[in-house]
Write a structure and sequence with these properties.
The chain is an alpha/beta fold. The chain has helices at residues 29-40, 43-46, 57-60, 66-73, 80-88, 99-118, 149-161, 177-183, 235-253, 281-289, 307-321, 337-350, 376-384, 387-390, 435-445, 452-469, 483-498, 552-570, 587-597, 617-624, 640-653, and strands at 3-6, 48-49, 124-127, 166-170, 189-196, 223-228, 257-262, 297-301, 408-413, 425-426, 473-480, 502-507, 522-528, 540-544, 574-579, 605-610. It has 2 domains: 2-390, 3-Layer(aba) Sandwich (Arginase, Chain A), CATH 3.40.800; 474-660, Arginase, Chain A, CATH 3.40.800. The protein has 21 helices and 16 strands. Bound molecules: 7-[(3-aminopropyl)amino]-1,1,1-trifluoroheptane-2,2-diol and zinc ion. Pfam families: Hist_deacetyl (PF00850).
Length: 664
């Protein structure tokens, strides 16, 4: 299934008609450069174009009052003076004779996107719209927003498709207070937002944007705010909040639909956000949400005012929605102190509502809750400072790297008598070894008579890894007689030649995994029921689940809170996923794991399985081909000792691995 793209140039046909410094950044070019970048890169042709439509009155009234709608309806007939007058009753927003029409198109586009996804016409999609929506409220326009596009889409999805749980992720750099107000007492809509806050000194300067606004009444726990109290947040900070706050809750919530308030003013170069995260981060943020809700994801444009980073960020998002390989994120160095404080506060505020956050630490000693608003004078001075002054350092950043699709997505190397799963390209495993390779084997194994099995295994692996490294294939599946031996073979013999860093994810317990590198060429993360408290080295990390890999709750927690951060920090060139026989891992969890691991090494994942486990080759192939993993149904409360052990492990490791840090 494809990716929907909604865009209508009519939404570029309104602009600011008078002088207002607060609104001058919201210009039609925002939409034009975004769409043109998609056209120029060839991405728009790969999407399924869905026409915009006007939202109807009844759809708008799902969120807004009749009084407000009737008032906005009058704006097309207003004189310039009337428009100015009308605008004065709202904050940081402007009206225009054509903005009502565009606002209906923006909301209608979001609804078209929901229809396309919910009817299975497409898997996911993005709507490039203006005016944006997440600040507008029941009876008021605000912050460039007229109708709350995403809030209307959430209500619409519930009403028309009986969607039970909607996750709204708001990565715009401003707090979508309009969305928060709409759903704060509603447990069927989980709203997550991070936003520049600076202890309430940043617009919209609301006390209720802080981390302690967790929702009300039956909605308690279903509103998550992560305030950024400093500017300059980087990729590491964003990923830490996803891994340690959003994703554990999102997986426990288990949504039927994911809506994204896709604002790109959280990217580097934006005059509003003043953050330093690069456009390719949105490739990963999108990817990390794509295995929720069976892949049903609708992104709706909100903010984004640096036309260069906006266009790049939109392209990065669309490329991931299309299933292209992810860019490798370089030198992630863990969250900054302020980010750790914020995520620790958010986690502790929510630990009573979410069992996946149950073991979160207490809030930091330094009370970062809202400081007294600085004197109005001080605040005035700050905003008085010319906009240009504050961002003259003229941030520069590298063009996001090309994300080329290898000619073959998934290859397999199987015993001749095993049928190849649909979609996988079988590599001939019986090709006789080139003489060169045989001699390599001989001196490598330093035994005269190299035993057949080992040679076969080695040659199969070597063939596949060569192609992965050459980007001729994206990922691969290998069935071998002895999976432990094959893993040793890769770890000991193949690593130095072909790849610099291999992340080995070992699922299930094995006999003699006694090979551990200390030079960092291999990082082994083993998830099993094996209780190995002793820590061999920074590069061998055993995660013990009391009930073993069949405990999906414990497993997903270990993946989100430990494996993902480690993987991002280690930044491997190859991921080796080893499924030990009898691991007991649940199929949907296995597919989720394969899906999430695609975020590393440009998707170069090599799955190693034992021949006698060939029954799960089908679901493995499906995940390797990029099909969304099935949702993890009815997750039990994780075992306390597992949750505790994971926290202890993280605390012990965070000295070596900064991205594991969740406490300041
Ligand atoms: N320096 C000028 C002050 C601007 N203050 C208002 C900012 C509004 C942000 C709107 C947005 O970006 O959140 C949306 F997504 F809605 F468009
Ligand atoms: Zn914004």
């Amino acid at each position: 299934m494809g990716t929907a793209l909604l865009y209508d140039e009519e939404m570029t046909k309104y602009k600011l008609l008078w002088v207002d410094p607060a609104c001058k950044i919201e210009v039609p070019e925002r939409l034009i450069v975004s769409y043109e970048a998609l056209v120029r890169s060839g991405l728009s042709d790969r999407c399924i174009s869905i026409p915009a439509r006007e939202a109807s009155d009844s759809e708008i009234l799902l969120v807004h009052s009749e009084l407000y709608l009737e008032a906005v309806k009058k704006t097309p007939y207003m004189t310039l003076e009337d428009l100015k007058e009308f605008t004065l009753q709202f904050g940081d927003v402007y009206f225009h004779p054509n903005i009502y029409h565009c606002a209906k198109l923006a909301s209608g586009s979001a609804l078209q996107l929901v229809d396309s996804v919910m009817t299975g016409k497409v898997r996911n999609g993005i709507a490039l719209v203006r005016p944006p929506g997440h600040h507008s409220m029941h009876g008021a326009a605000n912050g460039f927003c007229v109708f709350n596009n995403v809030a209307i889409a959430a209500r619409y999805a519930k009403q028309k498709y009986g969607v039970k749980r909607v996750l709204i992720v708001d990565w715009d750099i401003h707090h979508g207070q309009g969305v928060q107000y709409c759903f704060e007492d509603d447990p069927s809509v989980l709203y997550f937002s991070w936003h520049r806050y600076e202890h309430q000194n940043f617009w919209p300067n609301l006390r209720e944007s802080d981390y302690d606004s967790v929702g009300k009444e039956s909605g308690a726990g279903f509103n998550i705010n992560v305030p950024w109290n400093n500017v300059g947040m980087e990729n590491s900070d964003y990923l830490s909040v996803f891994c340690h706050v959003l994703l554990p809750v999102a997986y426990e919530f288990c949504p039927d639909l994911v809506l994204v308030c896709a604002g790109f003013d959280s990217a580097i170069g934006d005059p509003e956000g003043e953050m330093c995260a690069t456009p390719d981060i949105f490739a990963h943020l999108t990817h990390l949400l794509m295995n929720l809700a069976g892949g049903k994801l609708c992104a709706v444009l909100e903010g984004g005012y640096n036309l260069t980073s906006l266009a790049q960020s939109v392209c990065q998002t669309v490329q991931t929605l299309l299933g292209d390989p992810l860019p490798q994120l370089a030198n992630l160095r863990g969250p900054c102190k302020s980010a750790v404080e914020s995520l620790q506060c958010a986690r502790s505020a929510h630990r009573r509502y979410w069992s996946f956050l149950k073991h979160a630490a207490d809030p930091p000693m330094t009370d970062i809750s809202t400081k007294h608003i600085k004197s109005a004078m001080e605040e005035e001075e700050k905003t008085e400072m010319a906009e240009e002054e504050r961002c003259t350092e003229g941030k520069v950043w590298p063009e996001p790297p090309e994300r080329l699709c290898p000619p073959v997505c998934s290859a397999s190397v199987l015993p001749d008598d095993v049928a190849c799963p649909d979609g996988l390209k079988r590599l001939s495993s019986s090709k006789d070894l080139e003489p060169l390779l045989v001699s390599k084997l001989k001196n490598r194994f330093r035994t005269a008579a190299v035993d057949g099995d080992r040679v076969t295994t080695f040659s199969r692996l070597y063939t596949l890894i060569e192609k992965l490294v050459a980007n001729e294939i994206r990922n691969g599946l290998v069935l071998v007689p002895d999976v432990a031996a094959a893993m040793m073979c890769v770890v000991q013999d193949l690593t130095s030649d072909l790849v610099k860093r291999v992340l080995v994810v070992c699922v299930g317990k094995e006999k003699e995994l006694d090979y551990v590198t200390t030079d960092g060429k291999v990082l082994v993360v083993q998830i099993s029921s094996e209780d190995r408290e002793e820590q061999r080295s920074k590069y061998y990390i055993p995660v013990c689940l009391k009930k073993g890999c069949s405990d999906t709750s414990g497993f997903i927690q270990a993946v989100l809170g430990l494996l993902l951060p480690l993987g991002y920090e280690y930044n491997p060139d190859l991921v080796l996923l080893v499924r030990m026989p009898g691991s007991g891992v649940v199929d949907s969890m296995w597919q989720q794991l394969i899906g999430l691991l695609q975020g590393f090494a440009k998707g170069h994942t090599l799955v190693l399985m034992q021949v006698n486990e060939k029954a799960c080759m089908g679901s493995t192939a499906s995940a390797l081909l990029g099909h969304p993993a099935p949702p993890l149904q009815d997750l039990q409360t994780p075992f306390p000792e597992d949750g505790d052990a994971l926290e202890r492990l993280r605390e012990r490791l965070q000295a070596d691995w900064k991205t594991l840090q969740t406490t300041s």
